[in-house]
Amino acid sequence: MKTIDNRTDYELVMAYQNGEQQVFRTLLERHQQKVYNYILSLVKDKSLADDIFQETFIKVINTLRSGTYHDEGKFIQWVMRIAHNIVIDYVRKNQKFRTVYSTEDYNIFDMMNHPDLSKEDQMVKDQIYRNIRFLIKQLPKEQRRVLIMRHYADMSFKEIAEKTGVSINTALGRMRYALINMRRLAEKHSLSLSMN
After folding, report:
1. Is the dihedral of CA 161, 164, 169, 174 positive or negative?
2. Contact 53, 36 (CB under 8 A)
3. What is the chain's pLDDT, residue by residue, as a tens digit (196 residues)?
4. CA angle 176, 178, 180 (to 5 degrees)
5. What DSSP designation does 114 have?
6. Which of 153, 148, 172, 176 is nearest to 161 (CA)?
7. Which domains does the chain have, with CATH numbers?
8. Which of 39, 86, 92, 128 is deepest in the core (most CB within 10 A)?
9. Which DSSP state fits 190?
10. Residue 125: which of 192, 77, 49 has the closest Cα?
């Protein structure tokens, strides 16, 4: 039988979820330096990094205990994502950001055009870019194609309709559903798409 130190992250997570409380210490010791250094590199403040590190692992523990964690062989990436999101939340709460109002017509791409971003704003913006790329990949092919043509190739709906061989109304409909689906998926995955 493997010792605790020789078990994979997956094996340790499964053991922890099955009641072996002591194995969490091994998970923590295995990854704490990497997670802490990452947080510190973002916030540049040891006291704040300590707080965020602690909050990160409280969230990790609560998620594991609740049984909602789904292991895909990427435990450390999941922990780093939690840490990153907590840093983003902290930055959002403690810095002055331009407000982006969210309405039914709110276009998640509008925030990309803000000039002169502070370092903190840029960090949030970079995360939003990653969130948007993730969401676009989840869309049905037709919606994804229209959205990319519209927002990345800057094509008109008339041009999109001609290129894809559909009516303008169909192109508009696909764009509308793409944005609705992205908002729905963002909520499902708890992803932020605004700078406020």
Report:
1. negative
2. yes
3. 667 778 888 888 888 888 888 898 999 999 999 999 988 888 888 888 899 999 999 999 988 888 888 767 688 889 988 898 888 888 777 654 433 333 444 445 544 444 556 676 777 777 787 888 888 888 999 998 998 888 777 788 888 899 889 998 999 999 899 888 888 888 887 777 665 5
4. 70
5. -
6. 172
7. 4-94 (1.10.1740.10), 110-188 (1.10.10.10)
8. 39
9. T
10. 192
Copy the structure tokens of residue 125: 């913006």
Which residue type does 151 have? H
DSSP 8-class letter at 6:
G
pTM above 0.85, yes or no: no
**Looking at this protein, which amino acid is placed at residue 65?**
R
First and final C-alpha spacing in the chain: 51
| Residue whose tokens read 């922890």 | 16
For every residue of 94-113, DSSP letters joined together read HS--------TT--TTGGGG
Amino acid (1-letter code) at residue 102: S
CB atoms closer than 10 angstroms to residue 3: 7
- Distance in angstroms (rounded) separating the CA atoms of residues 151 and 47: 41
Q: For residues 193 and 123, give the distance between their C-alpha atoms in angstroms, rounded to a whole number.
A: 13
